[in-house]
Amino acid sequence: MFNTQKILNDFPILTRPGANGLPLCYLDSGATSQRPNQVVAAAARFYTEINANVHRGVYRISEEATEAYESAREKIRAFLNAGSTREIIFTSGTTEAINLVARSWGAKNLNSGDRVVVTEFEHHSNLVPWQMLAAEKEIVLDVIPVLDDGTLDLDVYRELLKLGPKLIAVSGMSNVLGTIPPLESMIPAAHEAGALVLVDGAQLVPHLKTDVRVLDADFLVFSGHKMLAPTGIGVLYGKETLLKEMPPFFGGGDMIRKVFLRSFTVADLPYKFEAGTKPIAQAVGLGAAIDYLNLLGMDQVAAHEHELTLRAIESLQAVPGLTIYGPLGGNRGSAVSFTIEGIHPHDIASLLDREGICVRAGHHCAMPIHDRFRIPATTRASFYLYNTEADIERLCSGLKKVVSIFA
Ligand code: PLP
Predict the structure, then answer these.
(1) Residue bearing the CA closest to ligand 1, atom 8
(2) Which of 125, 369, 380, 384 to probe ligand 1 with, by most ligand atoms within 8 A of CB?
(3) Cα separation of 106 and 101, whole Å?
(4) Average model confidence (pLDDT) for the chain?
(5) Per-residue DSSP letters for 206-270?
(6) Which CATH superfamily is domain 4-29+297-406 in?
(7) Residue 117 near residue 168, CB atoms below 8 Å
(8) Could you say which DSSP state residue 24 is in?
(9) C-alpha–C-alpha distance, residues 93 and 207, integer Å
(10) pTM
(11) Ligand 1 centre from 357 Cα, in Å?
């Protein structure tokens, strides 16, 4: 049994008042999650008891800092079931991780005329880096269209694979539609066609158990701040054989073995890709977030969210004039985006805020999918493990109030 009351006790921010002194109803975890006491304490403990730079000192607390940092890496490895910590690269987040792959793997392996496949619902982070590279190297960017129900047009995907793309860059869960693409069939098909696959796991890893060996993704990227951890820390998982052959992305301290005045040699994995001082306390916080998720159990987290999401979709459909974009049932994520006829999404979000309800309005850094549905913006409610049915009731009654104001 998922004990949300016990969970809520770990998130003091969720018991503070929102606007107008009303209880806070936080429905924007798709943008960033809240952090439990355990994560805040782990980061604070790092600063108050262990703080020192890593890998460089021979003194006691530097060794302890290195141990804390590397033990976070090991927790991430185990969480993803990766084969080795050499495959776990700390980045500042999803965006940096995708740019790293584009600028390192892409720069080395993509040439004029090569094809990269993305989807119509990608976040700008998994679109713009490829567009930039495409402009520089005359790479062709192919797009898997999205069908009216928010799923991918897999017939087109199969046709695109016949053109021999080098890479498929696909989100594991759409941050707008909540769509979960069938990676279990898309990845083997890509491999059969000779393409590598990068999975943008920003919305996937926080919500669904993700086993990189089962998935067989070549690259998987995600951000700590969407999964209970501090901001400024994220992960690039890459298969060791690929990472080994990739040139470094940033140059500087820690990523080198030896430096001469006019040349350098590169450090081993994973440090080859970790130039400069990394966000150490944040990495330790990510380790604590993983401990927290493991204690709850990712299967239980997913089941709780799924039940909540389906309940939300059912209740939202009773709001007059409301349209949901994305799958209305089945295996889908907990981001639910919608419009209400005649009311601007920003007005909806502002009026909900007066009720203490936090939702996001806009294009959610995914303009093309809004263009696809011929809408400039949506309002998005996104749920996480600390949300309850009471939150959904408040959202729906808040929306009915909004509708009555505009009526
Ligand atoms: N990809 C997806 C699907 C996202 O939802 C987000 C953030 O909303 C990102 C990428 C970018 O993540 P970050 O801003 O943490 O780099």
Answers:
(1) 31
(2) 125
(3) 6
(4) 97
(5) TTS---HHHHT-SEEEEEGGGTTSPTT-EEEEE-HHHHHHSPPSS-STTSEEEE-SS-EEEPPTT
(6) Aspartate Aminotransferase, domain 1 (3.90.1150.10)
(7) yes
(8) P
(9) 17
(10) 0.98
(11) 22
Do 337 and 376 contact (CB within 8 A), yes or no? no
Tell which residue, 217, 277, 272, has the closest CA to residue 243: 272
The total of other beta-carbon atoms located within 10 Å of residue 162's CB is 8
The Cα-based distances of 331 to 302, 310, 324, 406 in angstroms read 10, 10, 16, 34
State yes or no: pLDDT of 57 exceeds 90: no
Q: Residue 405 CA to chain centroid, in angstroms? A: 35
CA distances from 272 to 152, 244, 249, 366, 383 (A): 36, 9, 8, 32, 36
Contact by Cβ (8 Å): 205, 76:
no
CA 324–ligand 1 middle distance (angstroms): 21
Compute the half-sphere exposure of residue 346: CA atoms within 13 Å on the CB side of its CA.
4
Instruction: Tell the burial category of 218 from Cβ atoms under 10 Å away from its Cβ (0-12, 13-18, 19+).
Output: buried
Q: Give yes or no: 365 in active site.
A: yes
Using CA atoms, how far residue 131 sits from 137, 163, 164, 220, 245, in Å, is 10, 19, 19, 19, 23
Residue 301's CB: how many other CB atoms inside 10 A? 20
Q: For 352-403, how does the pLDDT look when each residue is reduced to its tens digit (9 = 90+)? A: 999 999 999 999 999 999 999 999 999 999 999 999 999 999 999 999 999 9
**Cα(95) to centroid(ligand 1), Å:** 7
**Does 41-295 match 4-29+297-406 at the fold level?**
no
Enumerate the domain spans of the chain.
4-29+297-406, 41-295
As assigned by CATH, the class of the 41-295 domain is alpha beta
